[in-house]
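Researcher: I'm preparing a figure for a lab meeting and need a structural model of a single chain. I don't have an experimental structure, so a prediction will have to do for now. The sequence is pasted below. Please return the structure as tokens so I can convert it later.
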Amino acid sequence: MSEHTWVDILVVGGGLVGSALANRLLPSLQAKQMTLAIVDAKAPDWPEHPSFDERSTAISFASHSLLDHLGLWKHIAPHAGPIHHIDVSSQGQWGKTRLNANEYGIDALGWVVPNPALGRALWSGLTPQSGLQLHLGDAITSIDPIADGYQVLLASGKILNTGLLLIADGFPSFSCRALGIEHQTTQYDQFALIANLEFSQSHEHWAYERFTRQGPLALLPLAHPKHMALVMTLNRAALDDFRVIQDHTEQSTWVKQLMQQRLRTGLGEVLQVGNVAHYPLVKAIVKEPIRHRLAVLGNAAHLLHPVAGQGFNLALREVSLLVDALEQLLTACPDQPFKQHQRLNTALHQYQQATAWDQTKTIEISHWLPKVFESSCWGVTQARSGMLSVLNLSPTSKYLFAKQMMGMAEARTW
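Model: Understood. Here is the structure written out token by token.
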């Protein structure tokens, strides 16, 4: 008969969000001699782990503050490309806006970090220790509600009972499906093509956001002065054209030509194109972000269009608000708080209320922004050009826009 192990909090998913959540939770739990477990079907250094692939993540100013507060930024900084300037434009239109970090008295508007480097930093302190259990490379086979929480059966035969289940296993989420938690999904019928590019000239820490009728394109500065991360939207026909090309040199030429058709940067010649990958763009919003003794976070809660680079940053803001609510519970109810469901569920509802507006606003911006810029209607094209120009000329409007992009509109200050 398998042994049942009790853990106060169980985090499902050891990717970017799950590991960030564990870093934020662990000190408070250890101080109360409580336990935290992380379960992931793959180990964090697994080469095919979906969170630690060759993509890069845009880190907002607010997210940087949280990571620095956790003592993790010192591990991330050598691999982070700071964004000092952002150029936002629409292909074939006259309007544009530019943001500069020095206008706001800060070092950078954001940073761009390769996911493997970000993952290594987030996992640097998550080693087996008092109060932390790691069940990595051990898939969940079932999840069932029990009287005082949830029972989780692992492929190894281990059984974990927990008072609070935090789901951060991405989308599609096995845990959500196992518990009958549904998502509202929107298929964009578009695909994101990603690659790292080397240019002949330095990027000077510029980031480019270009809206086209085929979808948005982002070119983001990496730590190397001539390396940039490309995220380019393709429709199905363009993806089919790319898929028939098997030779990497021919793929590189195709990517360079298409990128240069959509955006000219003044960065000189593209000298090299790294590995090229693509994935479908889907919007997926969980219908029950909280439930009895349960919360859903990260891509498992909201998979967003990458146009504004807000997915991970929104998740980190949610992590902070959730842990704030749980720390208040620990203070008010130090005696086995995760076995007292009424107080725990009250804390989860407080968290949901605290993050609801930020979630709604960020989700809507990420969804509608590319749609507005894809329209070819003359009135719409003129209006959006005017909007970008007014934004560029209005310090107040530009500050509010920059504040939203930096994640400072709703985030706490550390």
